[in-house]
C-alpha cells in the first residue's frame, strides 16, 4: 500500500480544519479562533473570496480578510487556510503566508481554471487541497491533482464535499461515497479530507457524516464553525459552534489501519454505505412512481375509468417476475414487492377519485 504524503503526518491527531464559512470582520475571526480548541483543531479556515451561485449575494470581504487570517495565525498559532479561485487569489494568499490553499468544487470542474491556479502555485511547498468537482466525475477530480503534480506541487490532498444533484435528498450535496473511495484506491498516497458541512447543508447531520468518513479511514475533516452560526453571512444552517465542534471531534471513533479488524470495518462500512445509498435511490424512485400513479388517477377520474384494471395488473406482475428472474431475484420476493407497490398506487388513485365525493 502506498504511503500517505508526509505533510499529513505533521500532527498527532487526525487533521481538523475549522473556522467560518466566510470572514466577516476581524472581531468575528478573533472570537472564533479564541473559542476553537487547539488540541483538536490545527488549521483555521475562512473564505475570503466566496463564489456564489447567483449575483448580488455576499461574495466575500476580499483581500482585507487576509490581514485577519494572518492575525489569527500570529496570535493563536493556528495554521491558516482559504480557497483560491484564480491566479490573483494565489498571489495574495502566498503574500500573506497562507499555509493551506484549497481549490473549490466550482473551480475543479474547469480544467482551464485548475491549470491557471497550478501554474501560479508552481513549486510551492504550501499544502494544496482539491475539492471534488460539483458533478460526479472521478477523472476530472484526479485530473486536477495531476495538473498540480505537473507543476511540482508536492504537498497535495483531496477534499470530499459531495456532489450536486437536481433531486432533493437529505443531503445538500450527495456524498456518493463510492466516488471518493475509488479516488482513494487510485491515488492512495493523496490524503483525503471530508467536508461534512457542505455534504449535509445542515448542522444536524455533521457528526454522522464525520463518523462515516473516519469509518472509511479518511485523514481529516473540514468543518465550518462560527461563534454565532445563525448570524453567519453565508451558509448559516451548516455551521456549528466551536463547543459543538469539540463535542464531535471528541466523540468520533477512529479506525486505525494497523488494527487487525481495520480491513473488516472499512469493507463492511463501505458495503453498508452502498446499501444506504441504494435504499435512498429506491425510495426516491418509488416516490416518483407514486407521482406518476397519481397523474394516472387524475386521468382516470377525468374519463370516468375504474381504478383497478385487471389486465394491466397482470401485465405488470408478469413483466416484473420475468425481469426479476433475469436479475437473480426470486418470484416470491418480486410478487410481494410488486403487490405492495401496486397497492400503494391504488391507494393514491383512490384518494384522487374520492376527492370530489368528500367535499
UniProtKB/TrEMBL annotation:
<dbReference type="InterPro" id="IPR006218">
    <property type="entry name" value="DAHP1/KDSA"/>
</dbReference>
<dbReference type="InterPro" id="IPR036979">
    <property type="entry name" value="CM_dom_sf"/>
</dbReference>
<protein>
    <recommendedName>
        <fullName>chorismate mutase</fullName>
        <ecNumber>5.4.99.5</ecNumber>
    </recommendedName>
</protein>
<dbReference type="InterPro" id="IPR013785">
    <property type="entry name" value="Aldolase_TIM"/>
</dbReference>
<dbReference type="GO" id="GO:0046417">
    <property type="term" value="P:chorismate metabolic process"/>
</dbReference>
<dbReference type="InterPro" id="IPR052899">
    <property type="entry name" value="Class-I_DAHP_synthase"/>
</dbReference>
<dbReference type="Pfam" id="PF01817">
    <property type="entry name" value="CM_2"/>
</dbReference>
<dbReference type="GO" id="GO:0016740">
    <property type="term" value="F:transferase activity"/>
</dbReference>
<dbReference type="Pfam" id="PF00793">
    <property type="entry name" value="DAHP_synth_1"/>
</dbReference>
<feature type="domain" description="Chorismate mutase">
    <location>
        <begin position="262"/>
        <end position="353"/>
    </location>
</feature>
<dbReference type="InterPro" id="IPR036263">
    <property type="entry name" value="Chorismate_II_sf"/>
</dbReference>
<dbReference type="InterPro" id="IPR002701">
    <property type="entry name" value="CM_II_prokaryot"/>
</dbReference>
<keyword id="KW-0808">Transferase</keyword>
<dbReference type="GO" id="GO:0004106">
    <property type="term" value="F:chorismate mutase activity"/>
</dbReference>
Amino acid at each position: 500500500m502506498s504511503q500517505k504524503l508526509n505533510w499529513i503526518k505533521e500532527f498527532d491527531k487526525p487533521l481538523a480544519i475549522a473556522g467560518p464559512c466566510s470572514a466577516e470582520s476581524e472581531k468575528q475571526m478573533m472570537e472564533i479562533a479564541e473559542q476553537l480548541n487547539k488540541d483538536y483543531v490545527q488549521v483555521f479556515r475562512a473564505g475570503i473570496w466566496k463564489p456564489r451561485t447567483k449575483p448580488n449575494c455576499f461574495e466575500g470581504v476580499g483581500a482585507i480578510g487576509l490581514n485577519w487570517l494572518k492575525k489569527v495565525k500570529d496570535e493563536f498559532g493556528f495554521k491558516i487556510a482559504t480557497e483560491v479561485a484564480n491566479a490573483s487569489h494565489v498571489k495574495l494568499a502566498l503574500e500573506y503566508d497562507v499555509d493551506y490553499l484549497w481549490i473549490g468544487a466550482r473551480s475543479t470542474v474547469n480544467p482551464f481554471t485548475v491549470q491557471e491556479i497550478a501554474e501560479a502555485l508552481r513549486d510551492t511547498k504550501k499544502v494544496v487541497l482539491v475539492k471534488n468537482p460539483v458533478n460526479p466525475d472521478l477523472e476530472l477530480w484526479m485530473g486536477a491533482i495531476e495538473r498540480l503534480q505537473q507543476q511540482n506541487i508536492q504537498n497535495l490532498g483531496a477534499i470530499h464535499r459531495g456532489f450536486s444533484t437536481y433531486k432533493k435528498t437529505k443531503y445538500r450535496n450527495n456524498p456518493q461515497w463510492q466516488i471518493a473511495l475509488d479516488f482513494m484506491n487510485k491515488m492512495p498516497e493523496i490524503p483525503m479530507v471530508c467536508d461534512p458541512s457542505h455534504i449535509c447543508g445542515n448542522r444536524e447531520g455533521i457528526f454522522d457524516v464525520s463518523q462515516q468518513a473516519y469509518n472509511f479511514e479518511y485523514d481529516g475533516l473540514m468543518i465550518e464553525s462560527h461563534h454565532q452560526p445563525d448570524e453567519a453571512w453565508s451558509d448559516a444552517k451548516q455551521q456549528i459552534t466551536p463547543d459543538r465542534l469539540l463535542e464531535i471531534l471528541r466523540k468520533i471513533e477512529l479506525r486505525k489501519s494497523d488494527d487487525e479488524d481495520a480491513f473488516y470495518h472499512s469493507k463492511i462500512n463501505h458495503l453498508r454505505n452502498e446499501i444506504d445509498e441504494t435504499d435512498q435511490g429506491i425510495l426516491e424512485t418509488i416516490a416518483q412512481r407514486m407521482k406518476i400513479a397519481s397523474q394516472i388517477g387524475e386521468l382516470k377520474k377525468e374519463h370516468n375509468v375504474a381504478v383497478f384494471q385487471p389486465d394491466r395488473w397482470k401485465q405488470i406482475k408478469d413483466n416484473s417476475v420475468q425481469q426479476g428472474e433475469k436479475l437473480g431475484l426470486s418470484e416470491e420476493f418480486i410478487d410481494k414487492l410488486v403487490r405492495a407497490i401496486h397497492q400503494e398506487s391504488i391507494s393514491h388513485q383512490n384518494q384522487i377519485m374520492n376527492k370530489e365525493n368528500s367535499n
